[in-house]
Amino acid sequence: MSRLIGNALTKELVARLSGDRVAVFEGKIIPIFTLDEKGWPHPALLSYYEIVARNPTTLDMALWKDSSTAKNLRTSAKITMMITDKDLNYYLKGTVQELQCEMTGAPQVSRFRVTLEQVIEDQEANAQITSGLTYTRQSPRGAEDFTTKVLGLLCEEP
Question: Is the confidence at residue 125, as pLDDT, over 90?
Answer without folding.
Answer: no
